[in-house]
Specification:
single chain, 120 residues, mainly beta, seven-stranded mixed beta sheet, four-stranded antiparallel beta sheet, 11 strands, 0% helix, 54% strand
């Protein structure tokens, strides 16, 4: 079965950095484009970043491109999100997401999320 497990969240001071990881299993990771989403407290979930299956193309939501970097290691079935110059408004639960079609139909898989809190 498809499983996505995020890790790496925590409490960080403004201006600091964190690196999130998402370990994937149960599907052919290297065939699937992957997303990071986040849900700030009291707000809707929003797209943070997307990366193609081979990692050659990345896109970012809002104005995150200058501070966040999405990457992947297909040999390790792992997705990453490097977050730099963190701001209090980056506080959110961060989720990785895989969306694809296979023989069973459409798959829209989510991890359990990892909390990121930016505060002094």
């Amino acid at each position: 079965q498809v499983q996505l497990v995020e890790s790496g969240g925590g409490l960080v001071q403004p201006g600091g950095s964190l690196r999130l990881s998402c370990a994937a299993s149960g599907f052919t990771f290297s065939d699937v484009g992957m997303n990071w989403y986040r849900q700030p407290p009291g707000k809707e979930r929003e797209l943070v970043a997307f990366i193609t299956s081979g990692g050659g193309i990345t896109t970012y939501g809002g104005d995150l491109a200058g501070r966040f970097i999405i990457s992947r290691d297909n040999a390790k079935n792992t997705l990453y999100l490097e977050m730099n110059s963190l701001k209090p408004e980056d506080t959110a639960v961060y989720y990785c997401n895989a969306r694809y079609a296979d023989s069973t139909g459409d798959v829209d898989a989510w991890g359990q999320g990892t909390q990121v809190t930016v505060s002094s």
